[in-house]
Design brief:
Elements: H1 3-18, E1 21-24, E2 28-35, E3 38-40, E4 45-47, E5 50-56, H2 65-74, H3 78-97, E6 102-104, E7 108-112, E8 118-122, E9 138-139, H4 148-160, H5 164-191, H6 236-248, E10 276-283, H7 286-298, E11 304-308, E12 314-321, H8 324-337, E13 343-346
Antiparallel strand pairs: 1-2, 2-5, 3-4, 4-9, 6-7, 7-8, 10-12, 10-13, 11-12
Helix pairs in contact: 1-2, 2-3
Length: about 350
């Protein structure tokens, strides 16, 4: 291949990246169209989208694109580049008439077909589609699947021939099931006797089996779920009065509240600085928290804002207490008079 042909081939290849039509004056035009990604099932290969090139022998007029690019690359005038193109095209046409094949580097091959037209075969080693830059073909290994006959045969063999290995597997599964059940039974036996369900510690890792002491976790949760029964803090007469007041005047505060004498004694071993908040809700917007606080005050609660959660939400409390029994009673009162979703937080 002559130097001029090599240079022209390089210029054509460069133009195909930016243009969808490159005309070789007096020879024909290369037209590019986007082709989607494809799957070759025979080769189990995914191919990325690419620019498919089609040769049109009727595009013969010089539009100046190739001549101007060749002129710039060779640093020659436009007329000189046009004459160079004409000379190369004459050589190509002569070679095609003689039955030879024209190879334009990284573009494709031209040859005469049986009907004397020019056939073009694209070189797929280069993808001229800009959006597919860096994409490569992906080969996927074929999945090996057993036929239905093989599966049935295998199942018959497995079910008819006893296996010591399978027996060991069954024993392992049985042991894996029995150990958690035994541990749960032992844990419940230690925790349940004489305990109120509101006081049980359902985490076996926090129980000191050597003593009757519950080990407090190092990290206190922001939300403590507390089981509160109203009958543990109010007498039957008081509960009837609360329900009557709630129907007649929902916003009226309890006038009196007496703890029952037969209440089980609670654990009160807390420091003097311990505080118990009966929480009404958490708000992302502080203005909403302030508005809700005023509503609770109007309903008869000693409501106030008690800081924020680790997530940044502003907490509104029905009230704050230094004694846990008073806090539990306040929690029962809030759930009866206002919202069943009230909860208690210790700090």
């Amino acid at each position: 291949m002559q130097v001029a042909e090599i240079n022209i081939s390089s210029v054509i290849a460069d133009l195909l990246y930016e243009h969808n039509c490159v005309i070789i004056p007096g020879f024909g035009g290369l037209v590019g169209n986007r082709a989607p990604a494809q799957l070759d099932e025979n080769k189990n290969t995914f191919y990325p989208p690419y620019k498919k090139l089609v040769f049109n022998s009727h595009l013969l007029m010089n539009d100046g694109l190739l001549s101007a690019a060749l002129s710039k690359k060779e640093n020659i005038s436009f007329d000189e580049s046009t004459k160079m193109l004409d000379a190369v095209v004459k050589n190509w046409q002569s070679a095609l008439k003689g039955g030879k094949e024209i190879n334009v580097h990284q573009v494709g091959k031209f040859k005469k077909a049986k009907d004397k037209s020019i056939a073009f075969h694209q070189d797929f080693s280069v993808n001229y589609l800009p959006e597919a830059f860096g994409m490569q073909a992906i080969h996927v290994a074929a999945t090996q699947r057993n036929t239905i006959k093989e599966k049935i045969s295998r199942q018959i063999i497995d079910s008819t021939i006893p296996s010591a290995k399978s027996n060991k597997a069954i024993l392992k599964i049985a042991a894996a099931i029995a150990v958690p059940i035994a541990a749960s039974a032992l844990f419940l036996a230690i925790n349940l006797p004489g305990k109120n369900s509101a006081e049980l510690n359902w985490n076996p890792f926090l129980w000191n089996f050597g003593t009757s002491e519950v080990i407090k976790p190092l990290i206190k949760p922001d939300v403590t779920i507390t089981i509160v029964r109203p009958e543990d803090f109010f007498s039957r007469e008081e509960l009837l009065k609360i329900y009557a007041d709630k129907l007649n005047a929902p916003n009226q505060e309890l006038s009196t509240s007496v703890v029952k004498d037969d209440l089980p004694k609670q654990n009160t071993s807390y420091t003097a600085s311990s505080q118990f908040h009966v929480i009404a809700g958490c708000f992302a917007d502080e203005n909403n928290a302030t508005t809700f606080t005023e509503e609770l005050k109007a309903a008869g609660f000693d409501a106030h804002i008690v800081g924020k959660t680790p997530g940044g939400l502003t907490r509104v409390a029905y009230g704050t207490y230094s004694n846990k029994l008073d806090a539990l009673k306040g929690l029962a009162n809030a759930r009866l008079k206002h919202s069943a979703s009230a909860w208690m937080s210790e700090e």
